[in-house]
Amino acid sequence: MNDFESERLAFGDELLRLREAAGLTGASMAERLGWTASKVSKIERGRQTATDSDVVEWCAALGLRKSVADALRERGRKLRIKQVAWRRQLRHGHQSRQQQSGSSWATASTIRGVSTMAVPGILQTPVYARAVFETQAELLKIPATDVPASVNKRIERQRHLYDGDKVIEILVTEAALTNPVCEARDMVAQLDRLVAAVDLPTIQFGVIPLYRKLPRLVPHGFWIFDAMVRVETVSAELEVVDSEQVAVYAELADELWTVAVEGAEARAILLACGRHWAELAD
Length: 282
Known about the structure:
Residues 15-71 form the HTH cro/C1-type domain. InterPro entries: Cro/C1-type_HTH (IPR001387), DUF5753 (IPR043917), Lambda_DNA-bd_dom_sf (IPR010982). This protein is of the alpha/beta class. The protein has two domains: 3-90, 434 Repressor (Amino-terminal Domain) (Orthogonal Bundle); 95-281, Endonuclease, Chain A (2-Layer Sandwich), CATH 3.30.870. Helices cover 56% and strands 11% of the residues. It has eleven helices and six strands. The chain has a six-stranded mixed beta sheet. The longest helix is centred in the first third of the chain and has 25 residues, at 66-90. The relative contact order is 0.11.
């Protein structure tokens, strides 16, 4: 989690603490402010940055002393300045984010990933990874000049797959293999890469077949690095460190593994996907 995200989460925690100290629920706070309940929740959970007027209204609704309100407004002001700096950093490209992810892979002892919409980065071929970075750069209006370096960082990180001292679990939905970002011929090579992963002795690799009833709704993929969860959204990455929330993700991963297939069954699905892309590539 970068500094801005950590501080926004801590600021939200403080606002939540003050609200609970006043004996108000999230719903009653929203009603008192004339806000939606989702806005209150997003600010308290560090998903949305409070504006100065938001902080003023919050303090007024709770009847906080002027000194407390002033301190919160100043803290909010510094947070918004840091947010601007963070957004500027993001506009410089993907490489710094790859370095941050590489650090998580290097230091974590237990890594659990669930990928629902794409081949996970740790198993991507260079061509697939390049396509991912280029399409995201275009969408987010950020430079694509560092794409080659970002691809190299991602591929270099794959050495951790062979680290027998780590516990690594990777779960991919078959659906993630059906809407690629690259050409059919490139998907053939990508599926070959996944087939090889099935037999890697240093990782546990599984596939959730199409049309398989899921135990829970899975709105997005996620990675668990020891006691931290990383979630990639359309425009950013979120990191969750609250122990209760991390436990929810761990439980969800456990349940998803109950409907996954491994070994020969997983290989059969991947080979069938590979044949499909090979036919389209002809």
